[in-house]
Amino acid sequence: MAKQELSCDDILKELRAKQYRPIYYLMGEESYYIDLIADYITENVLTETEKEFNLTVVYGADVDVATVINAAKRYPMMSEYQVVVVKEAQAIRNIEELSYYLQKPLNSTILVVCHKHGTLDKRKKLAAEVEKAGILFESKKIKDSQLLAFINSYMKRKGIDMEPKATAMLADFVGTDLSRLTGELEKLIITLPNGQKRVTPEQIEKNIGISKDYNNFELRSALVEKDVLKANKIIKYFEENPKTNPIQMTLSLLFNFYSNLMLAYYSPEKTEQGVASWLGLKSPWAARDYLTAMRRYNGVKTMQIIGEIRYADAKSKGINNASMNDGDILRELVFKILH
Description:
- By secondary structure, the chain is of the alpha/beta class.
- It contains 17 helices and 7 strands.
């Protein structure tokens, strides 16, 4: 029977209950969860006094496997545990040799291995030994469809609400880089006026640097409503502020929206709840634009739009494009979408 994989929340729950494992091998493309678990162990397992003698932090580029094993084999001084944290472990050559230590690890050592931007081959011996002795955790990139739920859940734990438009603006602007996203969320929390527990689009505009009227969320809304004037005003703003409104981000978001719209036509239930469930959206509110767009565009037109977005993406990268700038490319795309 396959061993059940623990989520980040499961691991943190264990740690808060002071249930420790000899090894935590944290790997994957999403750095946020790796840092969250490693930082919790670093900050909470040992007291400040115990850390002086029992906390070791090394970097993969500076050590070899033998150094890590020797550190792990030490006994704690005046403490029940010692913590050894290996950051950037993907830089260590012959990391597989760690499996020899894991055949008989010290229960007084908590070894935390942070392997970012990649994963272990689970068919090899090291992965099997890690799973036998402790935790092998893969931190996967979050999907675009999960972003709104992540933001709302994060802020709810902090006792803060976010207006739906504010959530969508932030998700569209930052994307799936969770370390950056949580940094922006913490900035919002700090800058909220005393006594205020709800984030508005105005706060996003003021503190994150996103215009509440000229952003990808509003562009998508203008296209859904077929508001030609509004769409072109936003394109003009994007052209004048290219650093905060890169064309690749806009094209990616439009491609995702119209691709989902194509799927929405096949939803068994054409209601907010039905479309949200069909597309894997966490909130029925997020399905409203799709329902409106289905009334404005038919399936054939939507397929044509997806093709035009691909063509615009190629042009933005210089393919079959000798003279058009990003603003011209977006203007042409918007014209083709709306006509």
